[in-house]
Amino acid sequence: MNIRRFWWVLAVPVFVALGWGKRSEAPVRERGPALTLSAAIQGFDNPGFARVNAPWPFRFPRDHGAHPNYRTESWQFAGHFKSSEGEDFAFQLAFFRLAIVPATAPTRSSAWGARGIFRSQLAVADFARRRFHSQERLSREALGLSGAEPSRVWDEDWKMEAKTPSGGGHEFELTARGDKVGLELNLRSVKPAITRGGDSGSATAFYAYALSRLSAQGTLRIADRRYTVRGLAWLDRAWGLIPIPDGPVVWDRFLIQLDDGREIVAFRLRRRDGGGKPIVSLALIGQDAKLWNLDQSELSLTPQGYWKSPVDGAPYPVRWRLSLPTEGIHLDMVPFMEEQEIDLSLRYWGGTVRVYGEAQGRRVAGTGYAELTGYGTQ
Predict the structure, then answer these.
(1) For residue 40, which phi and psi values (nearest 5 degrees)?
(2) Alpha-carbon dihedral 202, 207, 212, 213, rounded to 10 degrees
(3) Contacts of 207 (CB under 8 A, 6+ apart)
(4) 377: in domain
(5) Domain extent at residue 32
(6) Beta-strand runs (E) in 164-262
(7) What CA–CA distance (Å, rounded) separates 80 from 351?
(8) 30: Cβ contacts below 8 Å, ≥ 6 apart
């Protein structure tokens, strides 16, 4: 695996979430034509939007905020935590910005004139009670409904605000209040950001960074109950022209946090129709945040068990085995619960898994986030 593919792995979920649809907490059963990857990136070459033509001088907390000169941008958080009573929960909170006109375009006279669109997604898993809640919002960047600033992103009363901690590092405040679930979290970095500064002269280049280990604590609300929670989270960020394969290409992606202080990003790119041989990639992030990239010949990522969707019977491979013989790593991934299918504008399985196995002959465990796309009808 090369470094370019690693950043494509992190940035590609932007387009999982570009299923622009109505705000809803209920599963969407009737849909129009599915949004294809090619449709999602249509118009990316419109003049006026900034392109990547030089390395990016990352500076924080500035780069946690908006980059309005670029067409698309994403902030994606996922995490797992325990309540003070020892119960397990997980969350996802993501903001996606799609610009309609470049930031350099003249300001529109109407207060209703939107410069962009925000789609946001919240999911909360309550494993003790086997409940999974997901909700999305779609707002225009006008009238204060949604927007992004140097240190803040919001979609109505959902927001991410970047802080400047006195001891250095990265800090975020997340707030999301839905009808059935809500959260208020403080996230602090345990490791420095892993950055990708762009490829000079590339027409499809993008900027990105990841914070692979964030300590998380705060309050989670489900119905009329509140829980004090603590755990770990992950942040993926990207902006620019994100390279996406055109055609019926889908993927399985895994973000793994091991209890030995390392993280793994694993990716399996495949054809929706099952043809061809899947392309498997993996990156290992060390305890010192050093990034190691490994190619397909050094690893295997194979499904071990399936769960059928109640929507259409689609078989999701929710149990996996990951082997990396060169590093002595052999891991099994099993979902905390199988019912973690997100059925909103786009449908896919996005859930939290237990991870256990061995590394260099020692037992290791952890948690992970799995994203399985392209198995059901859209």
Answers:
(1) -65, -35
(2) 160
(3) 52, 56, 67, 196, 197, 198, 238, 239, 240
(4) no
(5) 3-372
(6) 171-177, 181-189, 194-196, 206-222, 225-240, 249-258
(7) 10
(8) none
Report which secondary-structure segment, H or E, holds 39. helix 37-40
Per the DSSP assignment, residues forming a β-bridge with 89 are 81, 126
| Residue 315 bridge partners (DSSP) | 308
C-alpha neighbours within 13 Å on the C-beta side of residue 99: 24
Residue 326 φ then ψ, to 5°: -65, -25
For 236, the token pair is: 């993926």
Decide which of 108 and 78 is more confident.
Answer: 78
Question: Amino acid letter at 199?
Answer: D
Assign 15 a pLDDT band (cuts: 50, 70, 90). very low
- Expressed in angstroms, the distance from the first to the final Cα of the chain is 30
Instruction: Specify the pairing of strand 347-359 against strand 341-343.
Output: antiparallel
Q: Do the domain assignments include residue 378?
A: no
How many domains does one find in the chain? 1
Query: Is there a domain that residue 275 lies in?
Result: yes
Tens-digit pLDDT profile for residues 345-376: 889 999 999 999 999 999 999 999 999 999 97
The CATH number linked to 198 is 2.40.370.10
Are 348 and 369 contacting, i.e. CB atoms less than 8 angstroms apart? no
Any idea what DSSP says for residue 326? G
Is residue 360 domain-resident?
A: yes
Nearest to 6 by CA among 202, 236, 213, 204: 236
How far apart CA 218 and CA 177 sit, in angstroms, is 14
pLDDT by residue (tens digit) across 134-170? 999 988 887 778 888 889 999 999 999 999 888 889 9
Cis before 61? omega within 30? yes
Q: Which residue in this structure is represented by tokens 């006026």?
A: 48
CA quadruple 124, 125, 126, 132: dihedral positive or negative?
positive
Specify whether the CB–CB gap between 352 and 367 falls below 8 A. yes
* Three-state secondary-structure class, residue 77: strand
Q: ∠220-222-224 over CA atoms, to 5°?
A: 110
With contact defined as beta carbons under 8 Å apart, do 237 and 210 qualify? Answer: yes
Question: What is the reported pTM?
Answer: 0.87
